[in-house]
Specification:
The protein is an alpha/beta fold. The chain is 42% helix and 16% strand. The relative contact order is 0.18.
């Protein structure tokens, strides 16, 4: 019972901790915590919070991060796109958007993918000034301050961001010289609605959500996830576990 330390000094009794271990998701998360498993992928038959809650209680945000976020990988026409945050933070601030972007950049670099960031909005580069667009503009500035080596710009509409000819013709000043592959959404509404529309109206393959900001790879599966999504997410979790054990990208 000594290993049941996730509730120590947090109002969790020993009997309560033992009862929690009868829950698959607490038990699986504790296996990762204690080193009996390297990663966990779960959630195919439940809602996100049932997997996320044990991860937050047992691990919490790690690796110097303040919170946990979720990112989806979308594969279409042999191209990879990453959407964040599409799972956790409902209405992120500019500071949270910055942290979400930096965590996502870190994850892409672990996958050996060169991150190119577009901060999405309903307007382009100041065409509309309001709190929503200002939030994205400030996030761009803060990301550039921390990672000036990473192409990042916005606020920009998604169709414009992905159209290099339009960028070159109308916004030559933009730091988007190649197709962005990391798309940062202003809030969870926009991210999740976009994701659902992509699933319904296209043949794109979605993988995730990949949890960002935890000390160990614990990733969520959408309810009734297809076998291909489970396999792909397990593969990503394995890559994360390998790099974490080697101390790469941590």
């Amino acid at each position: 019972m000594k290993s049941l330390q996730f509730g120590e000094r947090k109002g969790k009794t020993l009997s309560g901790a033992a009862l929690s271990m009868k829950n698959y998701f607490y038990f699986g998360t504790m296996m990762v915590k204690t080193g009996h498993a390297d990663a966990m992928v779960a959630g195919v038959s439940v809602n996100y919070p049932e997997v996320l809650r044990p991860a937050l209680k047992i691990f919490g945000a790690g690796r110097g991060h303040k919170f946990v976020a979720g990112m989806y990988m979308i594969q279409q026409d042999r191209k990879n796109y990453f959407h964040a945050d599409a799972a956790v933070i409902i209405e992120p601030t500019a500071e949270q958007l910055t942290d979400i972007t930096l965590m996502a950049i870190e994850e892409l670099e672990r996958m050996r993918i060169e991150p190119r960031v577009a901060m999405l909005s309903f307007s382009n580069f100041g065409s509309v000034r309001c709190p929503q667009t200002e939030k994205m503009r400030r996030a761009v500035e803060m990301v550039k301050a921390v990672r000036p080596d990473i192409p990042c710009d916005g606020p920009v509409q998604p169709d414009v961001a992905l159209d290099q000819d339009k960028i070159d013709a109308y916004y030559p000043f933009a730091d988007i010289h190649r197709r962005p592959n990391l798309l940062i959404f202003p809030n969870l509404d926009a991210a999740h609605i976009s994701l659902r529309l992509i699933r319904k109206l296209s043949s794109a393959n979605t993988i995730g959500p990949i949890l960002l900001g935890l000390d160990k790879p614990i990733h969520l599966l959408p309810r009734d996830a297809e076998v291909s999504n489970i396999v792909n997410l397990a593969a990503l979790a394995s890559v994360d576990a390998h790099y974490m054990m080697e101390g790469v990208g941590v």
